[in-house]
Amino acid sequence: MINALVYIFTAILAAMLTFYVNHSLKQGAVRSSALLALLVALLFHYVPDILSATLTKNIPVVFIGGSFIGMASKKIVDSYFKLAISGFVFAIIYLNTSSFFNGYGGALGASAGISLLSVLSLPFFSTKQHLTNGILQLRKIIIRKRN
Question: What is the dihedral of CA 115, 121, 127, 132, to 10 degrees?
């Protein structure tokens, strides 16, 4: 239980810090994610006795996955609240499917993408009008491709 809370906090912190460094400090998405992930990885590599072995092994991985969420554009994500919710969803996905993705590449990025897209899609399901507009837009795209 404590480990799950640590992972959730780590994913939320990673998403928000990466977004902040990316946009407020103007470092770019890749540099922000890489720099913060490197700092966390170096911390746990050189001081492995800070926390338990399980946390020391998994926190850098969760941080890297959470930092993928923070790489989003300001045009897509307009609030830190959405980033926090996306980090929470990512941590839940990580906790429940980490053994499923064993041996597959891209699991962190896929989980981060799923969590961000699921949070960004919530407004479309909050009112019937948004859902109807989304269906109409999808229909226009499909009809446009046929012509």
Answer: -150
Burial classification of residue 102, based on how many CB atoms lie within 10 Å of its CB (0-12 exposed, 13-18 middle, 19 or more buried): exposed
- Residue 134: pLDDT above 80? no
Q: Are 14 and 67 in contact (CB under 8 A)?
A: yes
Q: What is the DSSP letter of 126?
A: T
Per-residue pLDDT tens digits for 24-82:
999 999 999 999 999 999 999 999 888 999 999 999 999 999 999 999 988 888 889 99
The residue-averaged pLDDT of 101-106 equals 68
The separation between CA 64 and the C-alpha centre of its own chain, rounded to angstroms, equals: 9
pLDDT of residue 77: 87
Which phi and psi angles does 57 have, rounded to 5°? -75, -40
Question: What 8-state DSSP symbol labels residue 72?
Answer: -
- How many angstroms separate the CA atoms of 144 and 10, rounded? 43
Q: What does residue 98 show for φ and ψ, rounded to 5 degrees?
A: -60, -35
Name residues whose C-beta falls within 8 Å of residue 63's C-beta, 6 or more positions apart in sequence: 10, 11, 13, 14, 36, 37, 40
